[in-house]
Automatic annotation (TrEMBL), chain A:
Keyword Transit peptide recorded: no
Catalytic activity, EC: 1.2.7.11, 1.2.7.3
UniProt-recorded name of the protein: 2-oxoglutarate ferredoxin oxidoreductase subunit beta
Every Thiamine pyrophosphate enzyme TPP-binding domain range: 62-209
InterPro entries associated with the record: 2-oxoacid:Fd_oxidoreductase, THDP-binding, TPP_enzyme_TPP-bd
One of the Pfam families matching this protein, by short name: TPP_enzyme_C
Keyword Oxidoreductase: yes
Top-level class of the enzyme under EC nomenclature: oxidoreductase
One record GO biological process: cellular respiration
TrEMBL record, chain B:
Residue intervals of the Pyruvate:ferredoxin oxidoreductase core domain: 544-615
Stretches the record annotates as Disordered: 1-31
Protein name, entry field: 2-oxoglutarate ferredoxin oxidoreductase subunit alpha
Alphabetized UniProt keyword annotations: Oxidoreductase
Assigned EC number: 1.2.7.11, 1.2.7.3
Highest taxon listed in the record's lineage: Bacteria
Cross-referenced Gene3D superfamilies: 3.40.50.920, 3.40.50.970, Pyruvate-ferredoxin oxidoreductase, PFOR, domain III
Domain Pyruvate flavodoxin/ferredoxin oxidoreductase pyrimidine binding: 289-503
Keyword Oxidoreductase annotated: yes
Length: 350, 645
């Protein structure tokens, strides 16, 4: 096991409470917004992480969710639309003693900032990215987003949207993400557990958080939240456990031997032993990707939540730091006088 | 001694002949003439290695102690179609026994490796100039490709030039016949044959080139030795063949230079070193976020070699991420830099605006090239000045610093870092393609004499609330500089949030208050307006009535033009701006001292626009946008017209 990079971040000297992470700023999200729940979960989780709060930084882009840093009593930057992963990359790669979190939304991360997101993931910079997905543009008052379902009627698409949505988990896996998880704003326990695993991960962790926009897309995730419907709609992924769900836990995920694809079946004594056991640490992302495709993009039925993938692979910041160390070992600490002089000189005497 | 390049038609060789013939040299009995300066242009296909040849001749010349100035000129395509006019790559070098300012208007000597190189460059060579042509390449087809119906070597079109027909390819193959190389491999050394010949003609030292070749091809010793052999064969050819009856000496320019140790340096290298030096002098780690773009990429390449100085280089996914990462590093306490050219600046504009709002130090290095859009990637221009000044939404003032010569890029980088760190602001450093790739001798500075750029991070609360609580206010300013405190993450008790939304004065909290916004906009402007920059100096020995004002890389040509005018008895004053924003405090007063002000620029008059707007001075514009630096002679004529008007 590689060294946990979290060890590079100083620990708090005294015990912390949720209050320590609340800034003095009034929270200005709409009443009833899912963002409140996520904020509370993060503020509640931070004392458990126990890092010196001056070494924690939240960087965000533009959008409702991107106001998040103002409400955290840590260092923070509310930057520009889509660029938070790039800015956070500069911070994380130059300051390995910091715990750097990116807060972004579906528009910020997947539309205007899509390029930065995929490149942060492929580089595996030590960032924790919280992607609040409400499947709508909130701050600009209700246009469809890159995760909105096809045919979405909005102000900018009165006859329905024409573009197929991104599946953020599939996208992240395709971008070589080393940690990908999905959770839901209202499930504090699940959200906290995912945050815990993300924070401990070495490298980029992408956490998609289904978040309700009660003004412009209310109830978008109701099927996953309503107690009765959720039993049929939500597939909870737990590493090492068979993937089963349903009111009576009667459904399971099987690999189709003919296509290699995954399918949902009713569990029977015959097929029970072949029900897929979730392996978040699998060497290849193939099965994780197949799991990400189970959900119906329109109805969200059969939506897996939890950690899809969590693997160790080289972390950009670590590699960068090692190259600096190697250069010093190889050439000695840089000597400016020597550098400026170079090899080809001549002297003019008075 | 300020004899300048003259290019009167019919003059055989530029420069005065002093005490010819000098003493026999290297045992040769050939005549040796002494010159005060020479301009050589190497020209060939873009695959012929002309840039390398020019670089080597430059190194030899630098180590010999001449003053020099170079102008590489190459197409944007890596290997443009062979033998065509667009594929011609050239390297011009001006060297002298006295101080010179430009790579020269017109070459005295043209080395043409093929018909295309001859055709593309002959127009610049004055009658009487020497032309060395590789006759092996003058086959019918190659000539027809560039529109020569008959051979220019035979049809009299080169009458009046001193043509040296040399079968460079054949001679190179002959010299290398025992090396067991393929014809193609052996042919590639013909540029070294040409270099050897020119090195003989001008008595250049040769050890440096031989050492260089052995290092460059350390992994292919047979190629290294073949190149050395071709180089020596070229030298010996000059010494033995009757066609080359005369060789030339250009004495070291000892009197032109102050005492010191010198090296040759290009603008991009000097700029890279300036950034590394700024990191050391500020005692901050240097962080470069960049995306490859011509002609700025060499800075990324250079800085990536110096990780043992703690330099971090991040090759980003795009221009926006390049500056984004730099800004993130600045927030974390690095000396942050992004390097680019005009198209990249366009993409970075929003982040520069954010840096203006965040008030964090950040260097934005723009190596200008021909525009708009992709424009002329490998040619020079100064047309990004107004983009640097105004290319952002809202009132977003950014200081602008411009180096004037290749070596000056070092000092300009340190100066830009001083402003960024002192005033907590992004700063534009506006170099250009001519400075970037051109080179000149540089007096190596004593590192102990470099400016102290250390800055203080905030470490303690800076404000007391009415109830006595000590707090940290991220936008409480230094009353003198108006800079805000730089509190980096990891500093306990100073946790704060910053962003691109308008901030309340002092606290930095989000504020949409109209009066506060008015105050903040004006305060950010006042901070930049108040930056300390030295007064502009005026060179006016004769009490002239006309002032020529320049900025950036036009310094060399303007100064050369001014010298010409004065040598001919004309009166003109000269001033050159390093700081374009803010302008030096005395600029308005200086401008008003003169009846006429003329501003030469490689754009359509951008500085002139600024000067006219700010000072209500009827400045005249003299502009050129052909991708090349001004020629001193033409510029002198243009300035003279203004003087005489």
């Amino acid at each position: 096991m590689p060294e946990p990079l979290l060890h590079l971040v100083p620990k708090a000297e005294a015990a912390q409470s949720m209050k320590d992470f609340k800034s003095d700023q009034e929270v200005r999200w709409c009443p009833g917004c899912g963002d409140y729940a996520v904020l509370a979960a993060v503020q509640g989780f931070m004392p458990e992480l126990g890092l010196a709060k001056e070494n924690v930084v939240f960087v965000s882009g533009i959008g409702c969710s991107s106001r998040f840093p103002y409400y955290m009593n840590t260092y923070g930057m509310h930057s520009i639309h889509g660029r938070a992963p790039a800015i956070a990359t500069g911070l994380a790669t130059s300051r390995r003693d910091l715990s750097v979190w990116v807060v972004t939304g579906d528009g910020d991360a997947l539309s205007i900032g899509g390029n930065h997101l995929i490149h942060a993931l492929r580089r595996n910079v030590n960032l924790k990215i919280l992607l609040f997905n409400n499947r709508i543009y909130g701050l600009t008052k209700g246009q469809y987003s890159p995760t909105s379902e096809l045919g979405k009627i909005t102000k900018s698409t009165p006859m329905g949207s024409l573009d197929a949505p991104f599946n953020p988990v599939s996208l992240a896996l395709g971008a070589e993400a080393s940690f990908v998880a999905r959770t839901v704003d209202s499930d504090r326990k699940h959200l906290t557990e995912v945050l815990r695993q993300a924070s401990e991960h070495n490298g980029t962790a992408l956490v998609e958080i289904y978040q309700n926009c009660n003004i412009f897309n209310d109830g978008a995730f109701e099927v996953l939240k309503d107690k009765d419907q959720a039993k049929e709609a939500v597939i909870r992924l737990e590493h090492g456990q068979p993937i089963r769900f349903g009111a009576e836990n009667e459904k399971g995920v099987l690999r189709d031997p003919a296509t290699g694809d995954l399918q949902v079946v009713t569990v029977t004594p015959e097929n029970e032993s072949r029900i897929l056991v979730h392996d978040a640490h699998a060497a290849t992302p193939t099965t994780a990707f197949a799991l990400s495709r189970l959900a119906d993009p329109d109805t969200l039925h059969q939506t897996p939540i939890g950690v899809f993938r969590s693997v160790d692979r080289p972390v950009y910041d670590t590699l960068m730091a090692e190259q600096l160390e190697t250069a010093v070992e190889r050439y000695g600490k840089g000597d400016l006088g020597q550098l400026l002089t170079g090899n080809d000189t001549w002297t003019v005497v008075g | 001694m300020t004899s300048q390049v003259s290019s009167e038609a019919g003059e055989a060789l530029v420069g005065e002949q002093r005490s010819a013939p000098a003493s026999p040299h290297h045992g040769t009995e050939k005549e040796v003439r002494r010159l005060d300066r020479v301009i050589i242009r190497f020209a060939g296909d873009s695959g012929d290695g002309m840039q390398l040849t020019g670089d080597r001749f430059t190194s030899e010349t630098a180590s010999f102690g001449n003053d020099l100035s170079t102008l590489p000129n190459f197409p944007a395509e890596i290997r443009a179609p062979a033998g065509t006019l667009p594929g011609v790559s050239s390297f011009q070098l001006h060297f002298a026994d006295h101080d010179i300012l430009t790579p020269g208007d017109a070459p005295n000597v043209l080395v043409a490796m093929n018909p295309a190189a001859l055709k593309a460059n002959i127009g610049d060579v004055p009658r009487g100039g020497e032309i060395i042509v590789n006759t092996d390449e003058f086959a019918k087809r190659a000539m027809a490709k560039v529109g020569y119906a008959t051979s220019p070597l035979e049809d009299g079109s080169l009458d009046g030039y001193r043509v040296h027909p040399v079968p460079l390819t054949t001679l190179t193959l002959e010299a290398l016949k025992d090396f067991g190389l393929s014809r193609k491999e052996a042919e590639r050394s013909k540029n070294m044959f040409a270099l050897g010949l020119l090195s003989w003609m001008y008595h250049r030292p040769t050890e440096g080139t031989e050492t260089f070749l052995r290092q460059k091809f350390a992994k292919k010793p047979e190629i290294a030795e073949a190149n050395v052999a071709a180089f020596r064969a070229g030298w010996n050819f000059g010494e033995t063949t009757e066609d080359f009856a005369v060789s030339y000496e250009v004495a070291p320019a000892t009197r032109a230079f102050p005492t010191g140790t010198y090296r040759n340096i290009s603008g991009n290298l000097a700029l890279s070193y300036g950034l590394i030096a700024a990191g050391r002098q500020a005692d901050l780690p240097l962080y470069l976020g960049s995306y490859p773009i011509t002609p700025a990429s060499d800075i990324l390449h250079e800085l990536s070699k110096h990780k043992n100085f703690g330099v971090r280089t991040f090759q980003a996914e795009d221009e926006i991420a390049g500056i984004g990462a730099a800004l993130g590093a600045a927030f974390g306490g690095s000396l942050a830099v992004t390097t680019t050219s005009g198209p990249g600046v366009a993409l970075k504009s929003e982040t520069i605006g954010l840096a203006v709002s965040l008030e964090l130090p950040l260097l934005v290095v723009d190596i200008q090239r021909g525009g708009p859009s992709t424009g002329l990637p490998t040619k020079t221009e100064q047309a990004d000045l107004l983009q640097a000044m105004y290319g952002r939404n809202g009132e977003a003032p950014v200081p602008v610093v411009a180096p004037k010569t290749p070596a000056d890029c070092f000092d300009a980088a340190l100066d830009a870092a001083r402003i960024a760190l002192t005033y907590r602001t992004p700063v534009f450093l506006l170099s250009d393609g001519y400075l970037a790739n051109g080179s000149e001798p540089w007096r190596i500075p004593d590192v102990e004499e470099l400016p102290d750029l250390r800055t203080q991070f905030a470490t303690t609360p800076n404000h007391t609330l009415s109830d006595g609580t000590e707090v940290f206010w991220p936008y409480k300013r230094d009353p003198e500089t108006l800079a805000r405190p730089w509190a980096v993450p990891g500093t306990p008790g100073l946790e704060h949030r910053i962003g691109g939304i308008e901030k309340q004065d002092g606290t930095g909290n989000i504020s949409y208050d109209p009066a506060n916004h008015e105050f903040m906009v004006r305060t950010r402007q006042a901070k930049i307006d108040g930056i300390e920059v030295p007064d502009v100096e005026v060179d006016d020995p004769d009490g002239a009535r006309t002032l020529v004002l320049g900025w950036g890389s036009t310094y060399g040509p303007i100064t050369a033009a001014v010298r010409r005018i004065r040598r001919e008895g004309g009166h003109i004053a000269q001033a050159h701006l390093r700081h374009l924003n803010p302008f030096p405090k005395n600029l308005g007063e200086v401008l008003k001292r003169y009846e006429k002000v003329v501003i030469p620029e490689m754009n359509l008059g951008q500085l002139a626009t600024l000067v006219r707007a700010k000072y209500l001075v009827d400045a005249r514009s003299h502009t050129q946008v052909n991708g090349m630096p001004f020629k001193a002679e033409q510029l002198a004529a243009a300035l003279k017209e203004v003087i005489d008007a």
